[in-house]
Amino acid sequence: MAFFGKSKDSEFDISSVTVPTHIGIIMDGNGRWAKKRGLPRSAGHKAGGKNFRTITRYCSDIGVKYLTVYAFSTENWKRPQDEISALMLLFKSYLEEALNDFQDDSIVVKFIGDKSRFDKELRELMIRTEEGSAHRDGMVLNIAMNYGSRDEIVRAARTLAQKALDNKISPDDITEQMFADNLYTKGQPDPDLIIRPSGEYRISNFLLWQCAYSEFVIMDKLWPDFTKEDLNSAILEFAKRSRRFGGV
Ligand code: FPP
Predict the structure, then answer these.
(1) Which of 62, 59, 61 is CA-nearest to residue 24?
(2) pLDDT more than 70, % of the chain
(3) Which H or E run includes 91?
(4) Which of 10, 85, 123, 192 is 20 to 30 A removed from 72 (C-alpha atoms)?
(5) pTM of the entire structure?
(6) pLDDT-based confidence at 243, cuts 50/70/90?
(7) 101 — phi, psi (to 5°)?
(8) Which ligand 1 atom is the nearest neighbour of the CA of 70?
(9) CA-based R_g, the chain, Å
């Protein structure tokens, strides 16, 4: 399958480059996108949600195996209540549709983060979405919701400390692999490429453990404006990098 896109440098055939196995995206810039148009921030989130679906399907089409999107962080609860309520409504409507929408692409949906803070309706919807897609064999889509990487790491540390207290393991048994197996991303490869649209040079508590050797691409585009061609461009940039994982 050949997919063509325009990069900054040239037009290229994406089937000619190695597509990253795991891509992470910080879907940033919805608020600024809305402000530029004189619209409420919720309109930016709506446009961002629409783009999330487009880019997710495109990732699946080009052979990405894992896609992790940052939808709501543990810190986002600090936002004004009306923005939080609009986001929760949006999550409900998109998730309802997502299950059917992603069916043709065989996408497996998982949520990473602490579900317990969401209301019952949303929690049940998240569980239904996970269970309803678990049998599929396509791209794994991790939606990070009420996700914070520090929180994730503390939870893993607590679980292992409890196991040590219960004499199930000794502290010396703890390895990097055992630690990784206690994160939400258990069993998944680390992200190869993390993309942050909106021009901000920050990781914002996203996949801190998992990004040890990820390549970062920052793009000066707000998330609702981020296109398939921008994704191609990020993949092309990734393909040019020399990854040495600490070696030479
Ligand atoms: C960050 O932009 C974006 C968010 C906090 C929300 C992201 C949510 C979506 C794109 C909807 C996705 C829907 C599903 C079901 C996954 P910002 O508000 O911080 O933008 P700003 O930095 O310009 O203010």
Answers:
(1) 59
(2) 95
(3) helix 81-101
(4) 192
(5) 0.93
(6) confident
(7) -55, -45
(8) 7
(9) 19
Give the residues across from 147 on adjacent strands: 73
Q: Is 24 in the pocket of ligand 1 (CB under 6 A)?
A: no
Residues 63-76 have pLDDT tens digits of: 999 999 999 999 99
Residue from 149, 178, 150, 147 nearest 164 by CA:
178
Is the C-beta atom of 27 inside 6 A of ligand 1? yes
Bridge-based pairing of strands 4-6 and 11-13 is antiparallel
> Are 153 and 209 contacting, i.e. CB atoms less than 8 angstroms apart?
yes
- The tokens for 231 are 């994704």
3-state secondary structure of 140: strand
List Cβ<8 Å contacts ≥24 apart for 155-162: 155/182, 156/182, 156/183
pLDDT of residue 86 exceeding 80, the answer is yes
The residues, any chain, with a CB within 8 Å of residue 80's CB and separated by 6 or more, are none
Instruction: Please provide the CATH number assigned to the domain covering 2-239.
Output: 3.40.1180.10
User: Which of 6-10, 38-42, 87-91, 126-130 has the lowest average pLDDT?
Assistant: 6-10
What integer pLDDT is reported at residue 39 of this predicted model?
A: 98
Q: What is the DSSP string of 69-88?
A: EEEEETTGGGS-HHHHHHHH
Catalytic site includes residue 205 = no
- Residue 20 sits at φ, ψ, to 5 deg, of -60, 145
**Distance from the alpha carbon of residue 85 to the mean position of ligand 1, in angstroms:** 13
